[in-house]
Amino acid sequence: MYVLFEGIDTCGKSTQIRLIAAEHPEAIITREPGGTRFGEKAREILLEAKLQSKRAELLLFLADRAEHYEEIVRPNRDKLLISDRGFLSGIGYALANGGVSLEELIALNHFALQGDWPDHIIFFETDEATLRRRLGEKSADGIEERGIDYLLTVQEKMKEALPKLAIPTLILDARESVETIHQKIVTYLGI
């Protein structure tokens, strides 16, 4: 079962993934960007280099996604495979940056993933106050430096894309307790 944990920065994805990994040591845990050697280099560029071209940023995400699919997803499709972010985030960031349509992004991601969509998406939705508080507790990377309004726009763009994807999705309120969220995920996935 291939599951994407999606949402903007500081929404709680990584915390929930750590809880599942502790309960299911057999699970394959990965992330985008960064789940492969190429992905680590791409992540460094994306978070630190502050690319001027948003098209270059999109293409780097797509290149990482294609490599990640080939190296991590396809060989582990029969296992519990959880990715900290994936193509939905890519779509949200690209739409927030402008210059490309949702239909084009779906087609590009379909190409990068060889048409192999995840089985489920776990989507963490947060609000401005929670985002502001959590971002204040850490140092900002290059994408977080774009600001709270930008991140909330990315979140809205991800939510707008979900119905067009027709992938079973659990939408969670990231303001709820860690334990409540965890129980909802475990129940939803049946793990």
From TrEMBL:
Keyword Nucleotide-binding: yes
Lineage, broadest ranks: Bacteria, Pseudomonadati, Campylobacterota, Epsilonproteobacteria, Campylobacterales
Cited InterPro entries: P-loop_NTPase, Thymidylate_kin-like_dom, Thymidylate_kinase
UniProt protein name: Thymidylate kinase
Keyword S-adenosyl-L-methionine found: no
Positions with a binding annotation for ATP: G7, I8, D9, T10, C11, G12, K13, S14
Family: Belongs to the thymidylate kinase family.
Catalytic reaction list: dTMP + ATP = dTDP + ADP
Enzyme class, UniProt record, top EC level: transferase
